[in-house]
Amino acid sequence: MYFPEQKRGAANLLLVLTVAAAAGCVSYLLWPTWPSDPPALDVPALPVTVGGVLFEVPPAAIRTKLQRHAGQHERLDLVFLWPQLSPPPNDRATRDNRPIDEENATAALAEAENDRLFVTIVGLAGMLPPLERLRTIYPRYVAAQVAAGANGLAVLPFRSGTPYDGEDLVYAANNPEQFFARCTRAIGAVPGTCLSERALDGAQISVRFPQAWLSDWRNAAAGFERLVAQLHPDRR
User: Fold this and answer.
1) Cβ neighbourhood burial of 189 (10 Å; 0-12, 13-18, 19+)
2) Contact residues for 114 (Cβ-Cβ < 8 A; gap 6+)
3) Contact 123, 74 (CB under 8 A)
4) Quick one: pLDDT at residue 29?
5) Which residues of 103-130 are buried (b: 16+ CB within 10 A; e: fewer)?
6) What is the end-to-end Cα distance of the chain in Å, rounded?
7) CA distance 208 to 99
8) Where are the beta strands (DSSP E) in 69-219?
C-alpha cells in the first residue's frame, strides 16, 4: 500500500526521469559534430569562426589535425611560408601533433628556417585587446630607459620579476600603435623571437616571427596585414 506522500514521490521521480531523458535526446541531436577524418590538405579554404569572427583558412596551414574542420573554434594554430603567405608543404611543421602552446611554438620557430610565420587566433573574451595592453598594462612593467632600434624602432626592456621578464617591448618610435611587439632575447644558439598581436572584432590574432625580421619591420608589418586580409573575407 502506498501512502499519498509515496505516490507523489514516485510521480515526481517519474517526471524527473522523463525530463532528463528528453533533455538528453535533444542534446544529442543538437550537439555539434564534424567528420572524424580531417579534410585533405589541398581542399579549398575552410569557413571557421573564432570569437564570432569568420575566417577562411586553408587546411594545410592548420598545425594540428583536431582543428582541421569547418565551424566554430576556440583557438586556431596556423603556419605560413614567408613571404609567400601560403601554407608550407606537407612537412613536419604541418604534421606536428604535439600540444600547441607558447613554448613549443617558439621551439618550432627556432628550429625552422627564417621562412615560417606562426599564427594563433583566439577569442578575446575576458582579455584586454592588444592596443589596450600597450596603453595601460605594458607601461607598468617596462624600464625607464629607451634604446634605439633598427629603422625607427624603439626598444624598452621589461623589468626583472615582472610577467614579461626576459622580453623587450619593441615599437615604432614615432607611432607605437602602428607596430609593436614583445620580443625574447637570443640565448646562446637560440635566436630571439617576437610576438605581434592585434584585435579583429571579437578575435585576437597573434603572429610569432624571428627577431631578425625587425631589421625590415615595415615590410613585415605590411605582410601581417596582407595575411589578415587573406584570412578574413571582410578585410579584402
Assistant:
1) exposed
2) 82, 210, 212, 213
3) yes
4) 41
5) eebbebbeebeeebbbbbbbbbeeeeeb
6) 76
7) 17
8) 71-73, 75-81, 116-123, 147-148, 153-157, 167-172, 180-184, 193-200, 203-210
Q: Are 200 and 124 in contact (CB under 8 A)?
A: no
Instruction: Write out the three cell numbers for 24.
Output: 538528453
Q: Exposed, middle or buried by CB within 10 Å (0-12, 13-18, 19+), for 85?
A: middle
Residue 168 · residue 156 · CB < 8 Å: yes
How distant is the alpha carbon of residue 96 from its chain centre?
17
pLDDT of the residue at 34: 46
Q: What is 105-139 written as a DSSP string? A: HHHHHHHS-TTEEEEEEEE-TTS--HHHIIIIIGG
Cell of residue 15, nine digits: 517526471
The domain spans of the chain are 46-235
Using pLDDT thresholds of 50, 70 and 90, give the confidence band for residue 181. Answer: very high
Chain segment 187-201, per-residue pLDDT in tens: 888 899 999 999 999
Task: Please compute Rg for the chain using Cα positions.
Answer: 24
Distance CA 67, CA 65 (A): 5
Q: Whose CA is closest to 56, among 84, 34, 76?
A: 76
Q: Which residue is it, cell 535526446?
A: 25
Q: Which stretches of the chain are DSSP H helices?
A: 4-30, 92-95, 102-111, 130-132, 217-231
Please tell me whether the overall predicted TM-score, pTM, comes out greater than 0.70 for this model.
yes
Q: Which three cell numbers stand for residue 162?
A: 615582472
Q: Are 40 and 59 in contact (CB under 8 A)?
A: yes
Place of cell 592548420: 62
